Amino acid sequence: MSARVRRVVVTAATMFTMAVTASLGFWQLDRARQKIALQTQIDQRAKLPAWQMDDLLGASDPQEGVHRPVQLRGQWVKEASVFLDNRQMSARNGFILVTPLKLTGSARAVLVQRGWVPRDFTDRSRVPTIDTPPGEVQVEGRLAPPPGKLYELGGAGTGAIRQNIDLGTFAQETGLNLLAVSVQQTGASPEGLLREWPRAAVGVDKHHGYAFQWFGLCALAGLLYLWFHIVYH
Fold it and tell me: Where are the beta strands (DSSP E) in 104-168?
C-alpha cells in the first residue's frame, strides 16, 4: 500500500471514529436532557397535595401518581407481611418490611413498604417482631413503583423472608386485589422502623460522565491524527 493510499485510509478511519464518538457524546447529552426533565417531573410531583383514597382508586392508571404523597386508610393484612432481604438503608444491610393494606370501603389493596429493620446475622432465618396494629389505620407516605427486584436464581420465593415480590404471583398467593403500585410509608415509626427513603433520582450524572468520555475519545482521535500525520511528518 502506497503512502498516499495509507494516508487516505487513516484519514477516513479517523473521521469515521470522530463522527461516531461525537454522535455518541451528543446522544448521551440528549439522554441527560430527558432525564433532567424526568427528574423535574418527579420533584414537582413530590410537592403536590397528597392523593387521597378516592384519587388513587379513581385513577385510570395509579402509576400516574408515582412519587407524589398519599394518605390512605385501611386495615393491615398482617399474615401477608414479607421481609425483603438484602435491602440497604443508611448504608446498612437488613430487611424492608412490606405489608398489604386493605383499603377501607374497597376491594383493593396496596403493598406498603413500612420501613427498614436490621437482620439477625446469628440466625438468618429469624425475623424481628414488629407491632402491626389491628383495626383501621391511616397511612401516610409516597406513592412508588412496586418494591424493586434484586437478582435471584429461580422464581419468586415463599415464606416470611424473600428476595423479591412478584406482584401477580403474590396477589394469587394472598387472594388480594393488589394495585400495581406500592407506598413507601413516611413519618415517625412507633414500631422502630427506619424510614429514611432515598430521594428518587434518575441518574443524570452518569450520562454527563459518558458524554465526557465519548467527547474525550473523539478529541483523542483527532489529536493523534494531527500528531502522526502533520506534526510527526
Answer: 108-118, 136-144, 161-162
